[in-house]
Amino acid sequence: ARRISPLRFLLYVLAQVVGSLGGAGILYGMTPSEYRGSLGANAIGQGITQGQGLGCEIMLTFLLVSVVLAATDKSGGAGPCTPLAIGFAISAAHMMGISYSGCSMNPARSLGPAAVANVFDNHWIYWVGPAIGGVVAGGVYEYVLKPASAQSGYTTIQ
Hints:
Blueprint: H1 6-30, H2 33-36, H3 50-71, H4 82-97, H5 107-117, H6 125-145
Helix pairs in contact: 1-5, 3-4, 3-6, 5-6
C-alpha cells in the first residue's frame, strides 16, 4: 500500500531473513538432538495438496495484511487497540490454518527452521502464498477499502 520505500522494504526482508536464520540456529543449538525434529519448519497437512496449501497461505496472509493495513490506517485505524486487532488476526489465522498449511504468513519465519533443519518440502508455498496474499491485500485496501478521506493521508516512511 506504498507505506514504505523499496529500499526500506529490502532492508526489512534482509533483517527478517537474518533474524529467522539466527533464531533457528540458536534454537538448534539449545535443543537436545532427540527433541529437534524439524525445529518448527512449516509443512502442509496430511492429505492437503500443494494447491490447497498455497490457497490457504494466500488467504491467511490476505487476512493478516488487511487487518494490519486497516488497524494502522492514520485516518481511523484501531488506535490503542491496534496490537490487539493484529494479535487476534494472527491467532484466528493460526487456529484455522495450522493443520492445513502450517500457517506461515511470513516467508522469513519459514526459512530459518527449514534451512537449519534442512526441510524444504513444498517450501515454495511459504514464499509464493504470502507474496500473492500480501500484494492482493495491499491492492484491495488501497483501491477498494481505504476510506475516501484517507486517499492521500499516508506519510511515506523514507
